[in-house]
Amino acid sequence: MFFGSQHKYMLHEICTRNISSKMFDRLADRAIERPIPSEHFPKHDKLADYEVEIFAPHVDVTRAKVAFGDRAIPKLRKELRNRNILVVKQALCSLLDMAHDPEKAVQIISLNVIPWLEKLMKSDDSFIRKTVLQILRVISDQPRGKCSICKTPAILENISLLLSDPETIVRKEAAYTLLVLASRHLVVKTLVEENFINIIVYHLEKEINEDIMTYLLETLELLLDLNEIAHINCLKINGCNLAAFLENPNPRIRAKTAAVLAQLFIHQLGKEQAVQHEADIMKMLTICLDDEDEIVKINASAALMFGLTTTPAKLHALNLKLLPRLLHYTQISNCPSLQRNCIKALTNLAEAPVNRAKLLKVVDFLQNTDCNGNKDIENHLETLVNTILWQP
């Protein structure tokens, strides 16, 4: 049975199931016996739409009809320029589904669909902006996809603009897409040249969503890890100010912040700022060693390991009472990364005569450290003991 509320040309009809069958029979009998004047027939509105709005079961109305075989992608590409926004949305959803297939993803790249997506990133519809970013993120998993996106500077520019989008879901997709792009070395060079270090640091200071902050910090860590110029650019704009996030209640943000600081402290300028910064970053990292989250401890110990290579930092460690904490974590054999970082940090501290004199008192304690059969940690421990026992 058809119901009037589901068809545009029946909107003015009221259907009811309360009339009994006997009443219908009586009405039919009376109609047969005598003619009914034409003015008694209700007037119907003209047909407004030839397309029925009742869809068959299991039909997804959010997807466009996909052509067969190699004609599918060209048809969807053509629909991306349709004036009807509903058609564009359906085409984008179908394109997103097909992009998950590696073979189709390669075809999307080969048919130059990516430049067609660039203009849609400026759409007033947040759903379109979000879906385009999702397509770009999926395509970025393909090596050719990352290169194709980087060859379109307008897309990178639009991604940077969408990091300031009023919709949280769009900003989140933009940050996630940027993270996927930064996972390839060749793309990292392009992102650094396009000034994304400054863009990420700027948005980190403004962003309040924790997921987006995590994506941006992880992206910054990748850029710093794979590009030496990125260190200089980040330190020039006071990237060490990000140390304030070490006090964030979210453990993921604290962990990623410590990882970013570890990358910054690899550079000589970063080592100097570790001690000279007004926020006393070394003290904040020392507090993070007692964090409840294990990853925060590991990343904080890595940052200390790189930061304790200068003489001012080694002397500052005495005021922070850092030695007892590091000695404690050298005995945690069930966490090799934390144990190794603390042993290497102690090795750096032992190079200073004042610290070496204190470590001489516990050298027997260190020699009995359980390395759990890890040869790498055993070698680092041997280096630490030799440094402590070294005499000029």
In the CATH scheme, what's the topology name of the largest domain? Answer: Leucine-rich Repeat Variant
Q: Percent of residues in helical segments? A: 55-70%
Query: Which CATH first-tier class of the largest domain would you pick?
Result: Mainly Alpha
Cα Rg:
33 Å
CATH level 4 superfamily of the largest domain: Leucine-rich Repeat Variant
Number of separate helices: 23
Q: How many discrete domains? A: 2
Q: Spans of 5+ residues with little confidence (pLDDT < 50)?
A: 1-15, 47-57
Strand and helix order: HHHHHHHHHHHHHHHHHHHHHHH
What is the number of E strands?
0
Q: Judging from the principal axes of the Cα atoms, what is the shape?
A: elongated
- Briefly note the structural class of the backbone: mainly alpha
| Largest beta-sheet characterization | none
**Straight-line distance between termini:** 99 Å
CATH architecture of the largest domain: Alpha Horseshoe
User: In percent, how much strand structure appears in the residues?
Assistant: under 5%
Secondary structure layout:
Blueprint: H1 21-33, H2 72-79, H3 85-99, H4 102-110, H5 114-120, H6 126-139, H7 143-150, H8 153-162, H9 168-181, H10 185-193, H11 196-206, H12 210-226, H13 228-236, H14 251-264, H15 268-276, H16 281-288, H17 294-307, H18 311-319, H19 322-329, H20 336-350, H21 353-359, H22 363-367, H23 375-389
Helix pairs in contact: 2-3, 3-6, 5-6, 6-9, 9-12, 11-12, 12-13, 12-14, 14-17, 16-17, 17-20, 19-20, 20-23
